Amino acid sequence: MQMSMSLTQSALLLLLTILSLAVSSRVARYPQRTIAGVGLGVITGLVLIIAMSYAVGFIGYVLPFGQIDFWLASWVNSILR
Questions:
Q1: Of 8, 11, 26, 64, which is the most buried if we count CB atoms within 10 A?
Q2: pTM exceeding 0.85
């Protein structure tokens, strides 16, 4: 079975998902009532995760992740020499 996601795409999705969860956790602490905080945190988290997924897809459409992986590999190779 072949993986269709590049390393850069996986790392970017992971980073943005963690950032979205951190923001939604922070937003959930502000309301006075618990149920309002839970609802606000869930809605914020879902909206951010969906928006970031679309953003990563758009970046992959504009500049293919295979090209970004090639550039990163070349850059790391030049540093390690």
A1: 8
A2: no
Q: Which residues of 30-69 are buried (b: 16+ CB within 10 A; e: fewer)?
A: eeeeeeebeebbeebbeebbeebeeebeeebeeeebeebe
Q: Among all chains, which residue has been given the structure tokens 């790392």?
A: 11
Residue 29's contacts (CB-CB under 8 Å, 6 or more residues apart) are 37
- The amino acid sitting at 45 is G
The dihedral formed by the CA atoms of 24, 26, 28 and 33, expressed in degrees to the nearest 10? 180
Measured in Å, how far apart are the chain's first and last C-alpha atoms? 33
